[in-house]
Amino acid sequence: MQKYFLIAAAAFTFMACQSNTNSSQTTTDSAADKMKEGVEEIKEGAAMKADTVGAYLKEQKEIAQAKLKERRDELDAKIEELKKDGSKKSERARKKLEEARDDLSKTMEDVKNSTAEAWEDTKKGIDKSMKKADDEWQEFKHDFKELFK
After folding, report:
1. Residue 126 CB partners (closer than 8 Å, separation 6+)
2. Are the beta carbons of 40 and 83 closer than 8 angstroms?
3. Which helix (H) or strand (E) is 36 found in, with range?
4. 107: buried, middle or exposed (CB in 10 Å: 19+, 13-18, 0-12)?
5. Which residues have CB under 8 Å from 75's CB, separation 6+?
6. Residue 105: Cβ within 10 Å count
7. Residue 85 near residue 147 (C-beta atoms within 8 A)
């Protein structure tokens, strides 16, 4: 009887080990599947974030270029008016405004070629160029009041 008991105990132990090995393998497979799913979700999230950052940068560039173009067009209009005047004073004013316009054009090119990493520096350049154009315009209006009669 003890032989049967020992054989049964050995069989149960063997079956328990087999069951434990199978459940361990199932757990490992399940964990690997979950990890694969997690990695895929991270990849999708990173791709979505990259798309969002890219779209944001594109939008910011378009806004900046529109503002710069608007200011440049204003300067172009004033430059054309000054060309018609023909006086020496208007010639000096025109040259100052052309310098400011050229600076805006250069900044527009910088905006066009800017990367996400360089965007903060580019924005500083935009602000600097816009301020310079505004300062030139204010100085121009102050110095050449008679041209606006």
Report:
1. 64, 67, 68, 107, 111
2. no
3. helix 2-85
4. buried
5. 97, 98, 100, 101, 104, 133, 137
6. 15
7. yes
At 147, list the tokens: 């041209």
Q: Which of 48-57, 83-92, 103-112, 134-143 has the lowest mean pLDDT?
A: 48-57
- Each residue of 3-35: pLDDT tens digit? 555 565 555 565 555 544 444 445 556 777 777
Report the 10 Å Cβ neighbour count for 123.
14
- For residue 114, give the DSSP letter: -
Note if the pTM is more than 0.70. Answer: no
Tens of pLDDT, residues 63-108: 888 888 898 898 888 888 888 877 787 788 888 888 888 988 888 8
With beta carbons less than 8 A apart as the criterion, state whether 98 and 81 touch. no
Residue 50 tokens read as 């990259």
- Give the list of residues 6+ apart from residue 32 with CB closer than 8 angstroms, or none: none
Residue with tokens 């991270």: 42
